[in-house]
Amino acid sequence: MSGKIQNMVRVTDPIERIAHWLLAGSCLFCLFTGLGIMFRSWEFIPELLGGLYAVKWMHIFSGVVFAFALAYAFMMWKKDCAFEPDDAKWIAQGGGYLWKTNNLPPVYKYNAGQKLFFWFVVVFGALIVLSGLVMWNPTAFPIAVARWSYALHALSALVIGSFFVVHLYLGTIGNPGTFQAMTTGWCSRAWCETHCPRWLAEREKGSSES
Amino acid sequence: MKKTEYIKLIDTTRCTACRGCQVACKQWNEMPASRTRNFGSYQNPPDLQWNTWTLIRFQEHVDKNGDFKWLFRKDGCMHCTEAACIKVCPSGALYHTEFGTVGINQKLCIGCKACISACPFDIPRFNQETEKVYKCDLCYDRLKGGQQPACVLSCPTSAITIGEREAMIDKAYRRLDQLGGKGVVYGDKFVGGTHVMYILSEDPAVYDKLPVKPRIPASVILWKNLFKPFTLIGMGAVAGMAALHYLIKGPHEVHEKKEGDE
């Protein structure tokens, strides 16, 4: 084996990466077309994509893709993202991102912040999909349901949009060496020791015999 | 240029339910008829449609004294000053005209239907084929040409009249005096004042599909005044905090084991 591979660990499989980008792509497309519909100051988006009417349908179709990608991602990651008692300690210390800490609990596959992000996306993603379905044909629903769907859709967009920015920062320049987990799928062994030590230990224990 | 606001006053105490306004509206706006069904009332069609912008609602009412009354109410867009439909319309298809009325430009409408659930009066209707919303525009083209709306012109009993805002509000209250105070002026006390007003012979609560206290729905206010601006504010603030974090704390570097580890 080459030295390069020896010091790299495969942290995601292709299916995970495809699901991630399907979810991320449809989510971002929905986010930006949604902003284009909602804000006159983002008019360049409908202008770029062929008008508001076209953007309305793009938003809806992308939303359908998002719904399926979300359902798949939920099934795939819900086990890895189940909370455990140590997560409270991680959160109480801000994950070591905000001030100096020296007793962060060792992380398994995903830290408590990543888990929180996952569950926020699952919950508000489900809400945005359901409210979006109502908005697609509001007259088929009781008036109160239709009316509150619009508010709920906007609230969910606000939550997902804001968390997306955090995710983007922490997944790229905020944590060097992380982004490739979602491109090639290989991260350095040192990265694993920093970010998912328990998972790495278990993995190496399991493969030491083979 | 001084803005002249118009109000159309519908005096239900004068209405004979001839439905001339309904026909005139269809004719002027070149709206086709649709198949209809008899549901045991002269009210026809049963409800507003994309091609029926005004409708006389027939209602049998027995008041507190046991007196029977036949109530007629010409339903249609109320042309709110604080118009929920305009607040939610993403395309600018719904807008305030120089007369204070709510105009609609179908060329801009994308058929999102947001106005349909936002309207406190349940007025806009969707056309499945054109994928656009339709409603009364108080004959904007006629008003611009110095003409009365078609419904006003057609009314044989002068139950429907139109004029400048202040004068019409005045007229409504004078008519109320004439009626000996037995009646209600409807339209000047909510949503910033509507540009269609009623003189009702009964309490507003008596009438079918007439809200007693119409207002922009709370969900619309939360959506447009809070969640909408905070989408950009929230994303911007988080991006700002991330940038500050990067500058102050710096990226979270991986702790490489030094020397000889390779």
From TrEMBL, chain B:
Coiled coil ranges: none
SUPFAM superfamilies recorded: 4Fe-4S ferredoxins, Iron-sulfur subunit of formate dehydrogenase N, transmembrane anchor
Ranges where the 4Fe-4S ferredoxin-type domain occurs: 6-36, 68-99, 100-129
Any one of the GO BP annotations: cellular respiration
UniProt keyword list: 4Fe-4S, Iron, Iron-sulfur, Membrane, Metal-binding, Repeat, Transmembrane, Transmembrane helix
Chief subcellular location: other
GO (cellular component) term, any one: cell envelope
GO molecular-function term, one example from the UniProt record: metal ion binding
Subcellular location: Cell envelope
Record-given protein name: Formate dehydrogenase-O, Fe-S subunit
